[in-house]
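Q: What would this chain look like folded?
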Amino acid sequence: MTGNATFRHGNTALLSVSSVEAPKIVSSADFDRRLAPTLRRLKFPPKLLERVAGITHRRWWAAGTAFDDAAIEAGAKALAESGVEASEVGLLINTSVTRRSLEPSVAVKIHHGLSLPSSAMNFDLANACLGFVNGLTLAANMIDSGQIKYAMIVNGEDAQATQEATLARLQRPETTREDFGREFATLTLGSGAAAAVLGPADQHPGAHRIVGGVMRAGTEHHELCVGGIDGMSTDTKGLLDGGLQLVVDAWQEAKKEWDWGTMDRYVTHQVSNAYTQAIIEAIDLDPARVPITFPHWGNVGPASLPMTLAAEAQTLVAGDRVLCMGVGSGLNTALMEIVW
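A: My prediction, written as structure tokens:
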């Protein structure tokens, strides 16, 4: 399979990227306790989540806090850090996988909560865990074209309901090893929120230039991970193998047009220890330049990459080159360069 889609941006900069951590810490040890009878019956070793996925904790929201309220909080934080007024925003894209209903869009509540103007377009963009990066690309294209001046990308995820339903299902006496393996990835999820503000680079000296990147699809793998509100069924090995090959193919083909071998940071979608180490080894990355947040946040879906980028922003300096490496179930991948 060949054919990366290459995209370049002429005048778009990342003005801010912010995150909101869910406050309730839920340990993998707590999941182990709740699943103890099942784990013993199926003869699984202790600390399976920690040993296999490398996840010791994940976060849940406090009672009464909705995922879209958290997205509003992240958006307000990003606006404040960017110096852009809400009245100047021309586009809001919500990229949350989490949703409570099929319609209206999640974006409408966030648009209202941030007091954005009626002239600001707003909609949801869904592409599994790749949604946030896709949103950045779409917004940058609209800024480059002159259609809008400022854009905001937001995301809020809530893993609790899905994980509670999964835990209840796995506690049933009829649960098999195959059932457990199929739902294992659901236990690695976490809750969190993130937001970014984009604007014209020529009007914001010192902002972080979005250079461009490549995208690649491997949709023959569209049945490897299928999720809903009540749970997620995943072929973990198939997803790892397919996702890894997709990223490697994109990386190799991108060498024709991009020099990404010596980036200052490689900010990847945060899945698990096995996935991260496989990527590092497959394309020979310096582990010291690959920040890791999944052990304490879990896989926060589309929010995981921008949350990690927001954490890294504290140590980045002007001129640093950052490669955002996103992957989403389906499968799709995108590699995007930002110059700090």
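The chain is about 35% helix and 25% strand.
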